Amino acid sequence: MLQTDLNTLLSFQDDLTDEEIACFASHLDHTLKEEGYEIAFQCAMDQIHQFPTCEKLIYTTIFYLDGARFLHGVPDPDAYTEKLMPFYESMSHSQTPEIRDAALTMCISYHRNRKNFAKAEELINTLPPSRIDREEQLAILYTQQENYEQALRLWEHRVLLSTTNIQTSLINLMDIAMQQGREQDAQFCAEVYEQVSSLLHMTKWTPYIAKLQLATQNKNPKACLEVLHKVLPTLTEPWEPQTSPLYHALDGGDVSTIAQSLHRRILDDLEHSQEFAFFRDSPEYQQLRPLLNEAIHTDE
Questions:
Q1: Is 171 in the same domain as 281?
Q2: How far is residue 183's CA from residue 107's CA, in Å, rounded to a whole number?
Q3: Is position 131 within any domain?
Q4: 273 phi, psi to nearest 5 deg
């Protein structure tokens, strides 16, 4: 009647270890790259069905699937939203603060995007008050213990995370300025975005993202051409964060993989996204063809 087995119903299966979860996440990533998103999605659902009470598996898997549908340019990514949301709803009641807070954030975003503002506000009000910053306290402790390697990883991670937070804030300030007709303020935010991204040693193409977004919002082919002439040549250059004094101790593999996925998405959007439809029909776009073809060929 329940269309399930006793292992799922009564949770006879043991939880997976952290090592087993990490191994499965790696397998899932390989499956997605080799066989596509839908096969990876079903693989993840099968694993969750086998270990339905392993909260860390669900947390790791669902957040991976959610991000991957955008990073890998999955057609119609919104089609998977309704499949992912029940897992976020469940995790939003977790006794593990990290899992609960991350899931609550996704639930808030879901309701906000559907203009269910009352529900979004209700969930926001359930968020716990700010707590002591665990990562900062550990970083200070490791420094005092002269455990510099661990301390460096934490501080460098905070620099990277803070940079991302600043970039997100500037993009939103720019968008609001545009909606209010404050074009000079929007341009100022895009300039600051470029300066911050360069100063904090992000990928060579990252500094231009705000200006590219501004140019597409204004449907300005000339501005798009100017920005893309700077962006496209840099897409072929790998990001090696460890070469910067800011990120010596970071694991560059993960961030470089994300950077590669993001620039693939930029190339795909230029060729297929509705956002750039106005630009693809312009003479300016044809001027970019050699650079675009080179970037696509290098990516492949």
A1: yes
A2: 32
A3: no
A4: -70, 145
d(CA 176, CA 158): 27
SS3 146: coil
User: What are the structure tokens assigned to 206, written together?
Assistant: 């990252």
- State which amino acid sits at residue 274: Q
The two three-digit tokens of residue 215, written as one number: 């140019």
Let me know whether 183 and 280 are in one domain. yes
What is the domain count for the chain?
2
pLDDT in tens, 81-107: 999 999 999 999 999 988 999 999 999
* Distance of alpha carbon 11 from the chain centroid: 32
Q: What's the DSSP call for residue 3?
A: S
> What is d(CA 67, CA 128) in angstroms, rounded to the nearest whole number?
25
Give CA–CA dist 295/300, Å, rounded: 9
Residue 128 to residue 214: CA distance in whole angstroms: 35
The per-residue DSSP string of 53-73 comes to T-HHHHHHHHHHHHHHHHHTT
| Angle between the N-to-C axes of helices 18-35 and 55-71, in degrees from 0 to 180, rounded to the nearest 10 | 30
Q: Are 166 and 266 found together in one domain?
A: yes
What are the structure tokens assigned to 95, written together? 């006794």
72 and 152 part of one domain: no
What do you get for the CA distance between the two ends of the chain, in Å?
49
Q: Which domain holds residue 283?
A: 147-299
Threshold 0.85, pTM exceeds: no
**Is 276 found in the same domain as 197?**
yes
pLDDT tens-digit readout, 25-47: 999 999 998 999 999 999 999 99
